[in-house]
Each structure stands twice: as structure tokens, then as C-alpha cells.
Amino acid sequence: MTNGALAYATSPIKTETFPHFERVLFTTDFSETSLRAFPAAAAVARRFGSELRLVYALMPGDQICPLPEFSTGVTTIVESDARARLSALKNSAQLKGLNVSTAVYQNGLGSLSLEIAEDDVDLIVMATHGRKGLRHLVLGSVAEDVIHSAARPVLTIGPNATLTNASEFRPKHILFATDASADCFRALPYAVEFAKWQGAGLTLVHVLANKKENNPEADAFAALMKDALHRTLPLRAIKSCNPEIIVRFGNPMKEILDVAAERESELIVVGARSNKNKAAFNRSISYGVISQAACPVLTVRGREA
Length: 305
What we know:
Layout: H1 3-8, E1 23-27, H2 38-48, E2 51-57, H3 71-90, E3 99-105, H4 109-119, E4 123-127, H5 141-149, E5 154-157, E6 173-178, H6 182-185, H7 188-198, E7 201-208, H8 216-232, H9 235-241, E8 244-249, H10 252-262, E9 267-272, H11 283-292, E10 297-301
Parallel strand pairs: 1-2, 1-4, 2-3, 4-5, 6-7, 6-9, 7-8, 9-10
Antiparallel strand pairs: 5-10
Helix pairs in contact: 7-9, 10-11
């Protein structure tokens, strides 16, 4: 971590930056995997009084027909089936009393992020699976596309993630992973808000490069970093969460997952770098955490420069 990042870490987060989710978007392909994220979307919408938008994106494969003259009819059937399934979700007991709308996106992945932006959503909720070959073995192609391009926080239920109660999402411990960059710290208010929601425990973890044994300078810098992280916390976070701060040495992805396991975290919050900023967690770390974590992961992308 650079001295500049350490300097940034000494600036408290302002309370007015705390998020509120007015519109939550849940995207599904109706598979068992994708529906694992449904309880989380419902719980967040209920807690924050959000409008919940249920979305299905028509994929190119949905429109393939060996006889071109029938392709329009096939697409119509698929779309009608999708709308019926979305309607069934909308009328399910889990969403009773919520403000729910549905939509079918017509142009597949190519327009998904654009339409999400046009919908002006505050949070995207989705599950991941691997269906598109080796490159997407861990993260489904839809999730990878959205996390990389959507300028909205994404709550992801990864392939190894489980909810403590399969019908609810009520995290009792939250882990905020940071590299002390500006992009990462934009995710901190979300970690605090989720912790405040449930009265959950909150741990901040920062991982430094592997140190040589008996290196007093490294230990001193770790202590300095821990103090700097404490000073970033707004008074609201200290009062409501009494957060724990951990600084470790080693591989960032491994250490984050280890701390999550040790603290029995039920939500990990990470700040992903913007497309123009390489200061925050790189894609391999954030995607690695999502793909291997035993709990949901909230990814908050940095702003474009």
C-alpha cells in the first residue's frame, strides 16, 4: 500500500454518504441457482422499503429456431413464459406487501448493463453459476458482465455461498475487505449500513504483502495502518457496530476468506476498482472472493475518473 493510500485512510467517511436502496433489481434465468439470490433481494427490499424489480434478460439462445419463419413465434413463446414466471415470483408469499414490478429485457447481455443504468437502480442482486465454458467456470457470464460494467453495487450469491436461513437474508456478521484505496472506501458505508440494519458485528480487514520474519518495520507499519483504518470510521459506525480492525500479511484473497471463516461472516463487502482506476482491488481478487466465499458478497465499484 502506498503512502497516498495511507493518507486517504485517515479521512473519516461522511455520514451523508450512507446509502439507501430505493430500487432493488433482481435478475434471474429461473434456474435453481439464480433463485438462490431471491430471498436476499426480498429481504433487502423489505428492510429498506425499496421497490423490487424482477428481471429476465432474453438470451440469443432463446431466439434460435432451425426454421427462420418460426423464429418470431419461438421468441414470443419464450418471452410469454418468462413473463408468467416473473408474475409467479411477484405474487409469491415472500414478496407480500412489497412494491414489485417485472420486466423482460429484449437484447440479452449486450443491453443488460445499459438497461440497469436506465432503470436507475440502487442495488443489483443476483446469483452466479458457470455455464459458458472454462472462462466462466466460476462466475456465470451474466454476473461477470454486470459486476464489471454496472455502476451500481452488486450483491452476489456465489457458487459456494449459503444463507444461514435459506428463506431469509439476515447477516449477523459482516466483513469489510479494503486495500485502503479511495475506490475501496466507497464501499465502507454499505458495510456499515448492513451492519446497522441487523445489529451485526463488523470487521475491517486489510492485507499487506508477505513480510519477512522478525521485521519490526513491517509490524510498526501494520500498527500504523490499523490506527489509520480506525480513524476512517464515522461516529455512526463506531456507536452502532463497535467494529473490529484486523491487519494481516499474506495473499489478499486467502486472508480475506480466512478471516471470513474465522469470524463466521455472513456477508463480505468489497470495493472493486473502476475501469479507469487500478488502485482498488483488482478483478482477480474480487472475483476470487466471490467465487470461493461461503457467504454472499457485496461488490461496490469505484467511480469513473
